[in-house]
Amino acid sequence: MYPGFDNPRFFGQFQTIMIPIMHGLYFHRIWQEKIFNRGILAAILILQWCIVWALAGRGVMLGIAAAFSILLLTTGPRYRRLLLQALLAMLIGLALYWLFFFCIPSWAGLAQDIPSGLRFGLSKRDTLWLGAWEMIKSNPLLGVGPLHFSAVWNHIGAHPHQAVLQFAAEWGVPATLLLLWIVARAMWQGLMVVRTQPTPLDAGLWAALMASLVLAQVDGVFVMPYTEGWLALIAGLALARWQQPGHAANTLSLWSGYMMKAVLLLAVLVIAKILIVDVPVLHETYREFYEQHRIGSPPRFWDQGWIPM
């Protein structure tokens, strides 16, 4: 019933979140107390890095490397041990990948016909980005509508694999600028906490969020419900840890509380409408759409793009 990830990139998105946090947990006092626990965690990290190399997760490597590099440049030597451990685990994972997929098959006389996924180029992403840019130019203020990028069908992908372009194309430039300001402010606040109250776990949380943001510039991080669910949990945990004591109570006024409840109520109503009206006929809707456009891609909830008005 659940065969796994339809695309290895989806698992790579999860690794982008998990690996930095696990590196931070390695130096947490709970894990430091027992060598056995640290050994298990180190083995899992090395295995995950081996999988990253095996899946040729270019975006995963880019995201984690960028996050740790920013952490190093902005915090100095505070997290030197964490960064060195991450580098060591990555190199050991590479050696393990080379051993399992090349050395052992060679020694055993097995055929080495495993294609390498490591490649250069944009994998036709530039075509998707140009399509998103055309949508932005034609609808700069309000966009074409949430999830409506996929309404204009193409044979490459149902989303542009670039978060900023997708938000701007679907929600408009003003909403995108507001979103970027909110995200930048939140990440800056988190970085200040990581710098002034250095704990490896907080550094891992911040690196996980930053790595996901970097990965979102070349992959569909914010269109995959599985990844979005994990990001919501991690972002909530980070906000809870980084929130200043008493700050929420002082800034959350009565009116803002009512507004938040109204937004939550609206979200519940929209989700209820989807579950009651749209979900029961999803299969028929998928089949009709695929027969009309003669495509064979796996069904996705947002694949058709149009939201009934």
From TrEMBL:
Q: Which residues form the O-antigen ligase-related domain?
A: 44-180
Q: Name one GO molecular function term.
A: ligase activity
Q: Which InterPro entries match?
A: O-antigen_ligase-rel_domated, WaaL-like
Q: What is this protein called?
A: O-Antigen ligase
GO cellular component terms listed in the entry, alphabetical order: membrane
Q: How does it sit in the membrane?
A: Multi-pass membrane protein
Alphabetically ordered keywords of this record:
Ligase, Membrane, Transmembrane, Transmembrane helix
